[in-house]
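JOB MANIFEST
job_type = single_chain_structure
chain_count = 1
residues = 118
[input]
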Amino acid sequence: MREDEITVEDGFILVRNEEIATVEEARKVTKLVDRALKRSGLKRVLFDTRITKPPTDAVNNKMWAWVYGKQQHERLAIVVESLQKRATGNITARAIGANLKSFSDYDEAVAWLLSDEE
């Protein structure tokens, strides 16, 4: 993951990448996102994963551990390619008590992310 795949937008950090292939890359992504959050003073993150290759179970577990840890972030939105991924993400988020919601539509994700709606 390159740092230019993480950008500061108006009110949130945007993360777009093609692949997170290893647990080490997942660790790097989360550190870069945490750094961007700290530097910007923002607390909300949007992951646009529509072009991202499916992660391994180990990478997926590392990313969910970061979500659950709530280090620098308070709210997360994820844009996914399929309705199945959307449903799975929302079920997992509810199960771990994360303030995360999955979407199929980018604009809908941004609107929720920037709102105070639960």
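[summary]
The beta strands are 6-8, 13-16, 44-48, 75-79, 100-103.
The two ends are 31 Å apart (CA to CA).
exit_status = 0
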